[in-house]
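Course assignment 3, question 2. Fill in each field.
Student: A.L.
Task: Predict the tertiary structure for the chain below.
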Amino acid sequence: MNTKASDTALVLIPARMASTRLPEKPLADINGLPMIVQVARRAREADVGRVVVAVDDQRVFDTVAAAGFEVVMTRGDHQSGSDRIFEAVQAVDPQGRAQFIINVQGDLPTIEPEVVRASLRPLENPQVDIATLTVEISDAHEKTSPHVVKIVGSPVSETRLKALYFTRATAPYGEGPLYHHIGLYTYRRMALEKFVSLKPSVLEMREKLEQLRALEAGMRIDAEIVHSIPLGVDTPADLEKARTIMAARHR
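Answer field:
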């Protein structure tokens, strides 16, 4: 990208209160700060563009605003984070200044700023519609776990794959590395507009993986290979891990 990313990128952090495994997840305390504020801090440290949190609850709105971050209220009936960020984009940037939309999930409090920055790199290729991240799997259990989404991709460089498929199965078959997909996406603005206009696809519904909708529609997704997996906080046990990680960093 010839233009400085921070001039054209918008980081959006969707936050939902409706979590059954970890009630009121965005407000969970992590080392003295609500989780959603920790995520916003990591996004700001990445220094790639304007940071906005998209929420569906007044308490979260007030918490984020009190911490000094920009926040926008969105509808509570969205079926996906992509729909929520598209509503947020329209609300906070109606002039269309932001050409790259980075979707950082609101439950990644330990994400490293460099990982956020890495998500922009595949869009240096104008043929790429959506960029995401991946890491080589080293744990044998993860290779067969349906909870670990794998990316089947064709290498386009030493640090990048062109996505051919995403699956919960162990794939591809045979000798060679397997890659764990990290669900952080950076969209070209027009690609996000196209994506949210599409109906759920057959493979998306079968695998329960939203990104397959884009591939089935002929959109190109490239994945930058990184070296760490950000901890997604979904359970009380995950929350304790995040607290431990953040405490260690603070020390």
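Instructor remarks: The radius of gyration is 17 Å. The CA atoms of residues 110 and 242 lie 7 Å apart.
Grade: pending
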